[in-house]
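Extended Data, panel c. Modelled sequence:
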Amino acid sequence: MRLSRQTFLLTKPVYIASTMSLAGPYEAKGNFKDFFDYVMEDDEFNEKSHELAEIKMQKYVVSKLLMKNNLEYKDIDLYLGGDLINQLTVTSFSAKETNIPYFGVYAACATFAESLIVGCNMLLNMDRVLCITSSHFATAERQYRFPLELGTQPTPASQWTITGSGALILDKTSNNCPKIVAYTIGKIVDLECTDVNNMGMAMAPGAADTIEQHLISRNQSAKDYDLIITGDLGRLGRDTLDYLLKEKNIVATNIINDCGAMIFNKKQKRGQGGSGAGCCSLVFCSYLYKLLLSKDIHRILFVPTGALLSKDSPLQGDTIPGIAHAIEIEV
């Protein structure tokens, strides 16, 4: 049911039946080490390139997710997801051997939210949809920034691309599982940020706009949620979002947090925190999902964020548009 131009209430809940998470070795030393299902011993994952390692990450997560639920490829109606690398090659190559109908989607680091929204709508005519995203520090850094061999020093505002992957199964019948009840499709917001090392600043305005729209459309306040959690703004971006929400008279200081700001501990010294298409899917499919299952939290607004730049657009003097999509989940 359409509540506004951007916000939709599901007339029939969509259940998040199961999740699976795989973390890189450094991510596994952070705050959520006890929540990840699988941990890589090294970033190369016994492959010849980091791109092949990321493909293997997705394949591994999918195979373990299906095995966990006693399912086969033929039991999945749609393989839905994306990544950050060159026309979604990671997701396309990981899906090609499954013989599952496939949609590749892209919204940068907000791709996981986009896949969930598309998945909710596809379930009107399907029974079971698999959603997945991933990122890898080495593949993303050398595509968007500098060759790793240069050892370029990061700026104080920069973040660390997460090596990890998260996948989940959406269906219509898992009544005891967390469920998606509503979502808001974000608009592109561009405040003309040009600093490619400050993604949090570029994405925070889009997150603020989407959160405001969702709360207005649902006639709610931030206090109606146990947690409002964004995708990968990092600590600086999270603080910027808090400031922007206060400007909109939305008080969420003790409710709002960010996957990228949370994933690493202080000893790891990873700038403003984590980023990447795998950041929010990894945190949700491990830490957040298990909090929902245990009913330590009952209702969250999950708001993955994305910076819609390419490797060439900043070099051509373009700004960095941001976007965020909101998913309301409860148990």
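The chain is about 30% helix and 25% strand. This feature is highlighted in the accompanying rendering.
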